[in-house]
Amino acid sequence: MKRTTSRMIALVLSMLLVLAAVPAASIAEGENQKITMLFSAGGSGKAIAAAAERFTAETGIQTEVLLFSLNEVYEKQILSLSNGTNDIDIVAINDPWVPLMKEYLEPLELDQAMLDAFIPGMLNTFAENGVVYGVPVRMGGDVITYRRDVLESLGVDPASLKTWEDVYQLALRMTDKENSQYGWSMGLVEPSNVVKAWYEYLICYGGYIVNETEDGLGLTRPEAIAATKMFVKFVRDCCPPDVLNYSFNDQVDSMKMGQADMGLLWTSRYPSVNAADTEGYGKWDVLPIMPAPEDGSLENGVACVDGWAVGISKYSDNKEAAKAFIEYIGSYDEQLRLATENSNSPTIASIYDAPEYLAVIPQAENMNKALQLATPRPQKVYFNELQEEIALYVKLACLGDMTVEDALAACEKNCMEILESYQ
Fold first, then answer.
1. Which stretches within 205-318 are classed as H helix?
2. Beta bridge partners of 305
3. Beta strands 303-312 and 374-375: pairing type?
4. Rounded to an integer, what distance in angstroms lies between the CA atom of residue 258 and that of residue 80?
5. What residues have CB less than 8 Å from 18, skipping those under 6 apart?
6. Which of 3, 175, 226, 327 has its CA 20 to 30 A from that of 156?
7. For residues 366, 367, 372 and 375, what is the CA-based torsion angle, rounded to 10 degrees?
8. Around 296, how many Cα atoms within 13 Å sit in the side-chain half-sphere?
9. CA dist., res. 174 & res. 178, Å (int)
10. How wide is the angle at C-alpha 28 spanned by C-alphas 22 and 33, nearest 5°?
């Protein structure tokens, strides 16, 4: 009896040792694990969903990607995370959300070689004090994209476009409202879309939203007023009449279908505009700089980089499977696939020199030049609240319901109350 018992114990111990030696991914496959994430609908969501399908096919780990509007993704994730529920495994992190979500995220422990491969500014957007909370998977920046053939027909040298006034005057020449032809397009339907586009003008004019000590705002400063007036001029004079209701897909359609010959376009959307089945294919170029203010106060403008990372919820019951997905989507091979097959702006530096990427994105060199001087949106816990106010009053100015000065003054008053509530 003792001998039998000893044999049973030895057998159990040997089985435990074998199980301990099985890789996490193999355990996940054997148990048919499932991980869930939410993501923004549109191009971003389609790219992530494509990666998830490949990951499932290669590992057997079921990966569910639920698509919602940007605001819904934020609200649903914050509700789940703040309640400590385990219904989300992978957390989608838009760059302004980092300070709001980091306490709910698992610090990522990844190979240094993997971390070193990322463009530093993109990785650091989702890190704090040396702790990485998310792996950047889809990031880019707004660049000025235009039809080269239209500029040639107008006798305009792209090198002459140094200031926002230069670009505005060109957009005016391109615009023929009677024939529904426009010189500029943007996607402005959601508050975050409005603020993202407006912020591009603001930083090019040397303005800011919140000062460095976080006890004051810059919304009524001369730089903000000048930038907002220029933004309003573009919307009123050069854009399709319903541009304030344009999604990013609407913007892409307006450009690739020939309704608008120039626009402020996120780098990942360039392949969708430069589509092979359209009249403009091969004719879309990118300005290699961001314009400066027309008063000569700055030599160059500044690009705004933004995008998405993925992290792991502290409350996930499937952390190993979630980490496997993060390592997969952040790998060179998958980032290259996403870049060439799913119009994804790569986050790994070496991909920008890859022949496969340059074949798909011939304007990659100009994009990189335009993004050399770049900054992300403010990463503050209260930014989403400020964003709602800014979007409201910028839209009111665009609609002509308020002057730019009055809109920004009212906006600053409300935003200051928000800022003071966090002191």
1. 222-238, 248-256, 270-273
2. 141
3. parallel
4. 43
5. none
6. 226
7. 150
8. 0
9. 12
10. 165
**Cβ–Cβ under 8 Å, residues 145 and 280:** no
CA pair distance 28, 237, nearest whole angstrom: 56
CA 214-291-154 angle, to 5 degrees, is 155
Determine contact, residues 377/196, Cβ cutoff 8 Å. Answer: yes
Query: In which region does residue 129 sit, left (phi positive, over 0), alpha (psi from -120 to 50) or beta (all else)?
Result: left
User: What are the tokens at 381?
Assistant: 């816990």
How far is 285 from 150, CA to CA, in rounded Å? 11
Euclidean distance between CA atoms 308 and 400, whole angstroms = 34
- C-alpha distance from residue 377 to each of 195, 202, 279 (Å): 9, 11, 35
- Would you call 358 exposed, middle or buried from its count of C-beta atoms within 10 A (0-12, 13-18, 19+)? middle
Asked if 378 and 125 count as a contact pair (C-beta separation under 8 A), the reply is no
Tokens of 208: 């800011």
Of residues 119, 125, 144, the one with CA closest to residue 370: 144
User: 203 φ, ψ to 5°?
Assistant: -70, -30
71 phi/psi in degrees, rounded to 5 = -65, -40
Q: What is the pTM of this model?
A: 0.78
Residue tagged 């995220």 (tokens) = 105
Q: Exposed (0-12), middle (13-18) or buried (19+): which is 138, by Cβ within 10 Å?
A: buried
Enclosing H/E stretch for 305: strand 303-312
413 with 220: CB under 8 angstroms?
A: no
Torsion of CA 169, 171, 177, 182, to 10 degrees: 180
CB atoms within 10 A of CB 158: 17
**Tokens (6 digits) for 14:** 């040997």
Residue 253: exposure state from Cβ atoms within 10 A (0-12, 13-18, ≥19): middle
